Amino acid sequence: MPAPTLHGHCDPRFAALRDAFLANFRERDEIGAAVAVVRGGEPVVDLWAGDADPGRTRPWQRDTVVHVYSTTKGMTALAAHHLADRGKLDLGAPVAAYWPEFAQAGKADVPVDWLLSHRAGLPALRRWLPPEALYDWQTVCAALAAETPWFTPGESFAYHPVTFGWLVGEVVRRVSGRSLGSYFREEIAEPLGVDFRIGLGDDELGRCADITMLEPPAEMQRDFAAGAASDAPPLALLAFANPTGTGDHNAEAHRRAEIPAINGHGSARGLARIYGVLANGGRAGGVTLLSEPAIAALSVEHAAGVEGTVGLAARMGPGFMLNGEGPNPPIRFTDGARCFGHPGAGGSVAFADPDARLGFAYVCNRMGPHLDIDPRARVLIDACQEAL
């Protein structure tokens, strides 16, 4: 397919990134997408192109927002760190100090930072919840509070694909008195003027891109099909499908809900600005997002290895993924030693590189089958690295 009309701006130093972005439409079946880079506090790349729906009836606009799956996790973690940096949340304190019901089933001593680093042993619920529970915050949080850990907390690293959002979000709610989405909007997005929401309102619904169906990797699909008919479904199936499933993530109910692990909606520009602020000392326009010591803590390794839910090799900080080690790691951002960020199933990714004072974000609406860095994002990140 020929490349679509390109919109936005690109510093000449990043011309290779611009070219790679357009090549994704010609060579990698891109439908609609945006990429943004902030360096030293200044936007140097802000590009968008293509269509905001798979039927190619709506052009992608400057203010289009799109579902970014687990790229949301970085924003959810940021809300917790924002509270902690202001002395309102102790990340080393037991979760039960803020959420007393969480002490059930041997979890009384699990600290908040184990939720952030996927070491709480709660990647899934054993008891199937009805699909509508996806939009019932209290039902899911009560089930998680009562759940027995799958692994000994603190000793095992197991990615929490969806439960992460409710676990961290409920702590934020108990401490702040506001839902995770409200706290993020009022304390982070609005002060910085960024276009990212966890739970869309009326103003955002009309400019939201439609995404294609998310298709897990073929091997995972086979395992899920076999597990669905089993009396003992595999952990990965429960982790992704209980209660989320593969329903219509373009539905208004899904877009309005707060599911803080997977259903953030935003622009590449907004995500790159947030990570750009974090990569550049934590202050912008009179707003302090995080203090420098708090930012430094984001790139400290808390867990590493092959995690126990889907078998992904990863290094984990307190809510953010870090660059993998060794040749060709599945998760690698730029070459900066202190990179932290998060990819999302389907293709999106956003991260900070404090060594280069750089924030990067890529979002799209054609969902790819990759759980690590999508090839479309990989070529953009590599081009960005070359420009540095």
Map the helices and strands.
Blueprint: E1 6-10, H1 15-27, E2 32-39, E3 42-50, E4 66-67, H2 72-85, H3 112-116, H4 137-146, H5 163-176, H6 180-192, E5 196-198, H7 202-205, H8 218-228, H9 235-241, H10 252-256, E6 264-266, H11 268-278, E7 283-284, E8 287-288, H12 292-297, E9 303-306, E10 313-316, E11 321-322, E12 340-343, E13 349-353, E14 358-364, H13 375-387
Antiparallel strand pairs: 1-3, 2-3, 2-14, 4-6, 5-6, 7-8, 9-10, 10-11, 11-12, 12-13, 13-14
Helix pairs in contact: 1-13, 2-5, 2-6, 4-5
* Number of separate helices: 13
Characterize the biggest β-sheet: 9 strands, antiparallel
The protein's oligomeric status is: single chain
Strand content: 15-25%
Helix content: 25-40%
Average pLDDT over all residues: 94
**What is the 3D shape?**
globular
**Can you write the helix and strand succession as a string?**
EHEEEHHHHHEHHHHEHEEHEEEEEEH
Low-confidence stretches: none
Rg over alpha carbons:
19 Å
Q: How are strands sequenced across the largest beta sheet?
A: 1-3-2-14-13-12-11-10-9
Structural class: alpha+beta
Measured between the Cα atoms of the first and last residue, the distance is: 30 Å
Count of strand segments: 14
